[in-house]
């Protein structure tokens, strides 16, 4: 097993020492049948049946039966301990994968990975099943092998080296074949993932593929992975066949040699007939099956666990974090935001979403960002708030690069509300006061009245009402109002709303924006309706090729793209009133 996979499994299992120790303790009586079967059969023959003392022989066989029953009871007692090991193991792996998936998504690694959830379930459940299977089978197999060898040494010490000699070349053959099997299995796993990935990409964009004449190319790419997978599967079958042959020869050779040497062993006084039968019992009924099962387990579930663990180690590899300054800069006094030559792209070879953008947002400004859907408005919001870092240029707060400030300082100075507001599983008071733990009821009343939340407070019966998990009692609009009131009560100098009022009606949206303007500080709104731009002091238009900054009226006069975005704005008051309620269209 590869080092990363082994370290991962050992680290997880080391947290469950108690049930593992109990499994080890119960393994001793479980191994007694394999250890004592040959000896008891030998005693039943030599001391009983071959001397005509049939009752004595039956007593020895009854002892063997009791030993077998003891082994069965021990096996039964092991299963609850197995559950105590593998069930928490799965939960721990799920937590590890969820944490890794979230961090990789935030860091823009595996962006849009639709197979993430399937991989989460497959890897965690697969490791649970394989670990349980190996603890249930590999452990007793090893004990049976040790017991069989000990029994052979006890009954036929003169022949034991000859009997065990064939296992050496068989072991060497298995050792040589296992790395090839492991590589082949890893290839199969990667090829299956590529088949799913490439197929999903083609099917998701099938209309574009057909329209651009790329059907042959798409078919060739998918066919490449299917062909490679079939080739690997055939190679895997051949290797398994060769492994089975090596194992069969090594496992059955001791029985054949024991029967071949029987005249010499009994005639030379090396063993009795009973000891010979006992040795055959060990070699044929314990050793040979155990060797075959052990090799099959190693080449099957063990290799599969190795591959799955390696894959899990890859997908949960810690995300490389941006270099943290050795010493954080002190919190700046001002609250002016600025972007200087900011460039951001979602892939190293993709077209920049923002390219060499310069923007000043002075303290107290009311800026609305407008543009077609997918043009980069939300990306700009995450850059302004420090959620993302640009690949080029700087984002500064009062002249200090945001990346050099303590994250707690950034979070306290800049508040960000995304489109889907988060409501905590707690009371309304706890939700509203999350960013202001010492909030008073008077402050709550002020915020609630400002953003239009009073009706909800009255309906719920006050601030101590519970909201349930994720605010199940609230509508989407009410959830957004809770988030707005929460940020209203915070100490943030800068508030960025990324379509944070999209579930509110135009009047409620206007009321919320007016509340934040009256609150003081900087307000940046990613517009959901063009009416937000009408109320703003300045409007920033993103149109893909360049940016336009100015007042609503100025952009209408000078920027055709902006006029198209507001629906070819008309000067008449009636037309303006109608258009102001329209959602931002895509002029393309």
From TrEMBL:
GO terms for cellular component: plasma membrane. It is a multi-pass membrane protein. Residues 337-568 form the ABC transporter domain. SUPFAM superfamilies: ABC transporter transmembrane region (SSF90123), P-loop containing nucleoside triphosphate hydrolases (SSF52540). Keywords: ATP-binding, Membrane, Nucleotide-binding, Transmembrane, Transmembrane helix. InterPro entries: AAA+_ATPase (IPR003593), ABC1_TM_dom (IPR011527), ABC1_TM_sf (IPR036640), ABC_transporter-like_ATP-bd (IPR003439), P-loop_NTPase (IPR027417), Type_1_exporter (IPR039421). The keyword Membrane applies. It comes from the Bacteria. It is found in: Cell membrane. Residues 34-289 form the ABC transmembrane type-1 domain. The chain crosses the membrane at residues 20-42, 54-74, 138-156, 162-178, 241-265. GO terms for molecular function: ABC-type transporter activity; ATP binding; ATP hydrolysis activity; ATPase-coupled lipid transmembrane transporter activity. PANTHER family: ATP-BINDING CASSETTE SUB-FAMILY B (PTHR24221), ATP-BINDING CASSETTE SUB-FAMILY B MEMBER 6 (PTHR24221:SF654). This is ATP-binding cassette subfamily C protein. It comes from Crossiella cryophila.
């Amino acid at each position: 097993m590869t080092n990363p996979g082994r370290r991962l499994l050992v680290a997880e299992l080391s947290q469950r020492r108690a049930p593992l120790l109990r499994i080890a303790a119960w393994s001793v009586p479980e191994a007694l049948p394999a250890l004592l079967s040959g000896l008891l059969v030998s005693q039943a023959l030599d001391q009983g049946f071959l001397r005509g003392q049939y009752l004595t022989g039956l007593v020895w066989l009854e002892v063997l039966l009791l030993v077998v029953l003891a082994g069965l009871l021990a096996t039964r007692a092991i299963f609850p301990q197995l559950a105590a090991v593998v069930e928490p193991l799965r939960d721990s792996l799920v937590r590890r994968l969820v944490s890794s998936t979230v961090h990789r998504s935030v860091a823009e690694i595996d962006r849009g990975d639709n197979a993430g959830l399937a991989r989460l379930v497959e890897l965690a459940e697969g490791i649970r099943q394989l670990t349980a299977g190996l603890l249930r089978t590999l452990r007793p197999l090893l004990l049976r092998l040790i017991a069989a060898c000990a029994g052979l040494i006890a009954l036929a010490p003169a022949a034991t080296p000859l009997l065990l000699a064939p296992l050496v070349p068989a072991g060497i053959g298995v050792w040589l074949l296992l790395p090839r099997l492991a590589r082949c299995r890893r290839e199969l796993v990667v090829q299956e993932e590529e088949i799913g990935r490439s197929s999903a990409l083609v099917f998701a964009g099938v209309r574009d593929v057909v329209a651009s004449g790329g059907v042959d190319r798409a078919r060739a790419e998918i066919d490449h992975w299917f062909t490679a997978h079939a080739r690997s599967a055939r190679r895997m079958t051949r290797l398994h066949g060769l492994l089975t042959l090596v194992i069969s020869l090594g496992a059955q050779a001791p029985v054949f040699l024991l029967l071949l040497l029987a005249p010499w062993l009994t005639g030379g006084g090396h063993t009795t007939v009973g000891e010979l039968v006992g040795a055959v019992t060990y070699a044929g009924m314990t050793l040979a099956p155990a060797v075959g099962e052990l090799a099959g387990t190693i080449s099957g579930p063990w290799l599969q666990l190795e591959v799955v663990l390696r894959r899990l180690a890859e997908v949960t590899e810690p995300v490389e974090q941006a270099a943290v300054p050795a010493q954080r800069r002190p919190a700046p006094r001002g609250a002016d935001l600025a972007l200087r030559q900011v460039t951001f792209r979602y892939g190293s070879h993709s077209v920049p979403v923002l390219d060499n953008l310069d923007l000043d947002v002075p303290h107290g400004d009311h800026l609305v960002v407008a543009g077609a859907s997918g043009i980069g408005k939300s990306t700009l919001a995450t850059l302004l708030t420090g959620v993302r870092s640009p690949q080029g240029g700087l984002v500064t707060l009062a002249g200090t690069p945001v990346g050099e400030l303590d994250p707690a300082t950034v979070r306290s100075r800049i508040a960000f509300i995304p489109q889907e507001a988060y409501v905590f599983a707690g009371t309304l008071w706890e939700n509203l006061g999350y960013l202001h733990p010492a909030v008073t009821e008077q402050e709550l009343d002020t915020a609630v009245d400002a953003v239009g939340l009073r009706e909800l407070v009255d309906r719920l019966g006050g601030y101590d009402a519970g909201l349930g998990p994720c605010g199940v009692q609230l509508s989407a609009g009410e959830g957004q109002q809770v988030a707005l009131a929460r940020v209203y009560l915070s100490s943030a100098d800068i508030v960025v709303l990324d379509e944070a009022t999209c579930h509110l009606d135009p009047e409620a949206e206007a009321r919320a924006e007016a509340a934040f303007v009256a609150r003081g500080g900087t307000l940046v709104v990613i517009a959901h309706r063009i009416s937000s731009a009408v109320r703003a002091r300045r409007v920033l238009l993103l149109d893909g090729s360049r940016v336009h900054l100015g007042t609503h009226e100025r952009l209408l006069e000078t920027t055709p793209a902006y006029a198209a975005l507001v629906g070819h704005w008309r000067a008449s008051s009636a037309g303006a009133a109608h258009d102001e309620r329209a959602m931002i269209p895509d002029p393309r």
